[in-house]
Design brief:
Helices cover about 35% and strands about 20% of the residues. It is an alpha/beta fold and about 425 residues long. The chain starts with a helix and ends in a 9-residue tail after the last helix.
Length: about 425
C-alpha cells in the first residue's frame, strides 16, 4: 500500500466499528496524522528497519510492538527489532495466539523472543480474557459470599464450556487445515476459561498471583493417553448443511485438496485432580458451522437430596450460566412456584443480569480492554511463558493419542451441534449438553 491507501484502509475500519455514530472529521484528521506505514519484508534486515525505527518518538514513555502475524515470523521479526535497536527497556511486545503449534515450537518461540525481551515485557494476548463476562467471573466468585463456599465438588455436579461458531474457515483454509480446532481453540481460549473457572482465590489481582493460580490448574489436569482419549475425546468435521436458511459447503469443499483429517469440532471430558475439583467433570466443546453462535460457561449444581413435592417430582437443578457472546449476561436458574390455583407447579427461571439491559454505557470490547492493559503495564490477563507451555504439554498428549489411534473425525451436518458422539460423551455419565 501507499501511505494514502493505508489511511483509507484505516478510515474504513474505524467507520465499520463505529457505525452508530459518524466519525468526527477533525478528530479523524488528528488521528490520521499519527498513522505511518512502512512496507517491508519482515524477515530481511537492512535499511527498512532503520526507517521503521525512525518512526518512533524516543521521548514517549513506552513503545508497543504488536505482532499480529504468523507465529513462524515472531522470532525473525524480534531478531530484526533487536538488530535495529528497537527492543529498549521501554518496549512492550504483544504476541497474538497461537504461540506455536506444539510444545516444542512454543518453546522455540519463547526462547527466541526471550533473547531480546524480558518476560515482563511480553504480552501474549488472548482476546477471550478481555471479555466483560470473563472479567466478571472473578468478581462473581471472589466478591460474593454466597457463591464461593459453593464453588467446589461439594456443590457442583459438572461444568460445561462451549465456544460455538456458525462460521466456516472463511478464507483461512490453509492456516486452519494445518491447525484444527484443538490447536486453534482448545489450547488457548477454552483452557483459559477453564483456568479462571477452576483456579483458587489468588492472594491479590496482580499479574503474578493470578497467573500462578491459573498454572496450578493446568498442572492438575489429568493427562490423556490413547485409551482415555478414545473414551473422553471427540473429533468432528462439518459436512454440507444449512446455516440460517442457506446451504453451506462441507469443510472438504472449502479446501484446495480433496481430503483432510483435520478436526473442525472437539469435545472433551476433563478431570482436575485437586482437592477442590476431584470427581467433577469439566466438559469442553468447540466447533465451526454449528447451529448457533455462542460462547458460555455453565455451572450445574448438584440436585437437592430429596424432593418433598407432590409425588416426589424431580426438581430441576440450579445452573449458573455465564454468556460471553453474543449477548453478554449472567443468569442464575432457580426454581419457583408457577402462579395460580390447581396445585403446586415448579418452574425453572433465571435471575437475569444482562449487560445490555443493566448498563446503558458503552463498555470496551475485548481488544480495547487488553490494549489498555498493555499501555498500563498490567500483565494479569496475559499468558506467562510457563502457562503457555503447560497448556501445550497437556494438549500434546491428546495430539499424540489421536495420531496413534489414526481415526478420522466423525462427520456432522453444518447447522447442528456436532457429531452424535459428542452427545454420547455426556450421555454415558447420565448428563446432557445445556441448551440455552
Amino acid at each position: 500500500m501507499t501511505v494514502e491507501e493505508y489511511h483509507a484502509f484505516a478510515r474504513t475500519a474505524c467507520e465499520s466499528i463505529s457505525a452508530e455514530r459518524a466519525i468526527d472529521v477533525q478528530a479523524w484528521e488528528c488521528f490520521k496524522s499519527l498513522l505511518h506505514y512502512v512496507q517491508m519484508d519482515a524477515t530481511d534486515g537492512g535499511e527498512k528497519w532503520r526507517e521503521l525505527k525512525n518512526q518512533f518518538d524516543n521521548d514517549l514513555p513506552i513503545t508497543i510492538l504488536y505482532l499480529a502475524v504468523s507465529p513462524s515470523l515472531y522470532v525473525p521479526i524480534v531478531e530484526r527489532l533487536g538488530e535495529a535497536g528497537v527492543n529498549t527497556s521501554k518496549s512492550r511486545l504483544v504476541l497474538e495466539k497461537p504461540i506455536g503449534t506444539d510444545l516444542s515450537s512454543a518453546r522455540a518461540i519463547n526462547d527466541g523472543v526471550a533473547d531480546h525481551f524480558d518476560e515482563e515485557q511480553i504480552y501474549r494476548i488472548d482476546h477471550y480474557l478481555g471479555k466483560e463476562t470473563v472479567q466478571n467471573l472473578m468478581v462473581l466468585r471472589f466478591a460474593n459470599g454466597l457463591l464461593e463456599p459453593s464453588w467446589s465438588r461439594s456443590s457442583i455436579d459438572n461444568v460445561q464450556i462451549t465456544v460455538a461458531e456458525k462460521l466456516g474457515v472463511e478464507g483461512r483454509a490453509s492456516y486452519y487445515d494445518g491447525s484444527g480446532a484443538l490447536r486453534d481453540m482448545v489450547q488457548n481460549h477454552l483452557l483459559q476459561l477453564l483456568c479462571l473457572t477452576a483456579m483458587e482465590p489468588p492472594a491479590s489481582l496482580n499479574d503474578k498471583d493470578v497467573r500462578t493460580e491459573k498454572i496450578k490448574v493446568l498442572q492438575s489436569l489429568r493427562r490423556l493417553d490413547k485409551d482415555s482419549a478414545t473414551r473422553f475425546t471427540v473429533r468432528g468435521q462439518y459436512n454440507e448443511g444449512i446455516i440460517d436458511g442457506s446451504a453451506v459447503r462441507s469443510y472438504i469443499e472449502e479446501l484446495p485438496q480433496t481430503e483432510s483429517n483435520t478436526e473442525t469440532f472437539v469435545a472433551l471430558k476433563v478431570e482436575i485432580d485437586n482437592w477442590r475439583w476431584a470427581g467433577v467433570p469439566f466438559y469442553l466443546r468447540t466447533g465451526k458451522r454449528m447451529g448457533s453462535q455462542r460462547s458460555e460457561i455453565v455451572i450445574t449444581f448438584k440436585p437437592v437430596p430429596h424432593s418433598i413435592f407432590e409425588g416426589g417430582e424431580a426438581v430441576e437443578v440450579n445452573r449458573l450460566v455465564l454468556r460471553l457472546q453474543p449477548d453478554e449476561a449472567v443468569r442464575l436458574y432457580i426454581q419457583i412456584k408457577e402462579p395460580g390455583p390447581g396445585g403446586l407447579r415448579i418452574k425453572s427461571l433465571p435471575l437475569n443480569l444482562s449487560y445490555a439491559e443493566n448498563f446503558s454505557v458503552r463498555y470496551p470490547d475485548a481488544y480495547e480492554r487488553l490494549l489498555m492493559d498493555v499501555i498500563r503495564g498490567n500483565l494479569s490477563l496475559f499468558m506467562r511463558r510457563d502457562e503457555v507451555e503447560a497448556a501445550w504439554s497437556w494438549v500434546d498428549d491428546i495430539i499424540s493419542a489421536w495420531d496413534e489411534l489414526d481415526t478420522p473425525p466423525a462427520l456432522y451436518s453444518a447447522g447442528t451441534d456436532g457429531p452424535v458422539s459428542a452427545a454420547m460423551l455426556l450421555d454415558r455419565d447420565g448428563k446432557e449438553w445445556w441448551i440455552s
